[in-house]
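re: ur question from yesterday

yeah so i grabbed the chain u mentioned. its 392 aa long if i counted rite. heres the sequnce exactly as i have it in my notes:
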Amino acid sequence: MGSTAGAASTTTNPGAKAYGRPGRARRVILAAAVALVVIVAGYAVYGYEQSPHGATTLVIYTYSSLLGGGCGAAGSNVSNALAPFARAHDVTLEVECPEGTLANTLIAEKNAPVADLVIGLDEVSAPQAEAAGVLVPYTSPELANVSPALVAEISPDHAVTPYEWGYLGIDYCPAFSNATDGAVGSLTFPELASNASWARNLIVEDPTTDIVGEEFLLWEIQYYTQVLHQPWQPFWSSLASAPAPTSDSWDDAFAQFTCAPKAPQMVVSFLNDPAYSAYFGAPGALNSSASYWNGTAYGWKTIYSVGIVQGSHHLGLDREFVDWFLQGSLQSQLPTTEWEFPANGTVAVPSVYHWAMDPAEVHALNDGVTPAQIGANIDTWLTEWQETENAA
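ran it thru and got these structure tokens back, copy pasting raw so excuse formatting
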């Protein structure tokens, strides 16, 4: 997930932003032996008692910038956000932020699970965790307030429960918009592939090391497969030959996105970024676009979930936590800490979101591929991407 949310600079330099995104830490693809070492030694671990008498402890795995960050350290944003549940249920919460991906950690610990709950499995990693059998399905009554489509796009079998969502976007600088007579605001992937000057201005994240890059790969694959009915690999050959600048992580990519005259003018990021910039005093510092074709906007929906870990001995409390996580008191904090839309459709987003593209205008390409298909094919797609890059 990257850096934690915090007060942003009011400069028009969008790269100065200091906010995190769910699951945005490097994917960290490691050999199995290395992964096991990381899992044993690589945690940031914080236990905090929200009730002085709580005899029961729930261990929660998550990402470091959840709800504003802090990974559960006493007095941190996330500990304050979770405190009402702990007090109401007389329970101690122990929040841990593993290195690498949450799915890999759960899978490595399958025979000796540590966590009770996991917060942050996304539309790519949740199917992998579900296929590995490390989750306990649960159908929360609070799903009455959640779109069935959102559930179907991450886990039709309720192995996890979605709590927030948004869209990837291609952020671009105002000067670049002016230079293209506004065309970048309705860009197509074929335009990026055929226009070397555009491609050289687009910072992309490596999908083998970063979850944003992985999601962008899925966006591009489904765009070419579903919309254009063409092979998806030539797009990457074109970007590689431009060449488009590639970064190991979203954090690093965004740091390069300064809108300086000779710097890259676009970056793969999120459609809600303009709302964030406006919220912290820099309205219009950047804009963000989906990918278009014949007047229709196509995007990739990012979905984040809370799940119960197979092997937990506190299933009743786990289910109550999932229910609570979908209720308005918690969900109302997401728009200005996670910069995503609450899964609970009864919770409103602040007016600053009018700076961002209306998600109702975007056709979700997730609808054309099932979570099971993503889980089954992602490793093959990553290998094909590497082969395409190496051949360019």
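noticed a couple things. Residues 1-13, 15-20, 23-53 have pLDDT under 50 and may be disordered. also The chain has two domains: 14-166+303-350, 167-300+370-391.
anyway ttyl
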